[in-house]
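Table S2 (text version). Query chain:
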Amino acid sequence: MDSPTPRPAGTRVTAGPSDRAGATGESPARDPWWDNTRFVSASLIVVLHTMGSIMDRHGPLHAFHVAAWAFRVPVFVVLAGVFSSAGPLGARHLRTLLRSIVLPALLFSLLFSVESYALGSPFALHITQLPWTLWFLMSLFFWRLLLPLVAQLRHPLVVTTAVALAVGYVEEFGLQFSASRTLVYMPLFHFGWRLGQGGFGKWFESRWSLPAAAAGVLASGLVAWRWHRDIQGTWLSMRHAYRADTALGMEGAWLIRLAVLASAAALVLCLLRLVPKRRLPLISALGAGGFTVYLLHPLVILPLREKGLIERADTTPELIVLLLGAVLLTGLLASAPVRRLAQPLTRPPVGWLLAPAPAAAPARTPERVPETVRPPRHGDRSQGAGVS
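Corresponding structure-token output:
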């Protein structure tokens, strides 16, 4: 069937957030719907990180930044939830977390430090506060640890949303260990897990939802175009505690965050409804490399930004070239050859660090009680005949 929808509860989605495609960039088990979505989100992330330092100078760029916010980090958070498990964290799951999250986070944090030093900054190791985009990996680690607990709650979405709103009043929850973002984005992560379990199936199958999704995306663009200068970056970053310099003050700051989170969830649903579910030439294959794109692109953009090359772009043709360059960079980093070359960093081996995984105990076949010694049951007409 060429129009996959979220699976019913109890089934597993395929093609997780880490890049597991083979040399061709595709795996027979991969669902192209998720890969198409991942490519869109990864492209927007690279575009906005490329042009982020100059977008305040250009109104349309800033409006685009606000309009597309939900299609960048929130989509990645939701997709991470789609491919996460709420089952018990056994040895196999912990080894996977170490290999796909913890070690890549440390390796790329070190690479970022070395590159920053080579560009003239003082050398600094980042442990509790990972640089730039790597906060996502630290939050992802904690989300996956918390999900089995959250899934046991009677009303998990209500509880996680309440925590996300309340944490804004606690100054101690900030950038250290990505604490603020971890708790604020947890409702979206759980929302993604529910999608992976088959939630909102009617939305993805109904005909009326397609124009509704298009209207939602259009409304996001219109709101951003009209009020992008009034929407503060702190409302979208989720990094810090609330500030009093808003129209609602400290007392109503939680309402702004609630509106932002609700808008993000709604717009993610709109994007998923609009993204084609069939396999698209090139796009689906490149979407399989979204995780590699997320890890590698800051190392490419950083020297361009620090050397002032991006700042020079000012005219419309230069901005168009910069935008197209960011999309091409996304495609290059997501390509199968680059993914293969980067795999020792994006999925490093852990055999040198961990003890061998314990062998699975063979399943024991219960011994069959001979019918001749089985106590006869009431109404059992065989009466120990040995045949059922």
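Notes on Table S2: The radius of gyration is 24 Å. Confidence is low (pLDDT under 50) at residues 1-12, 14-18, 20-28, 368-388.
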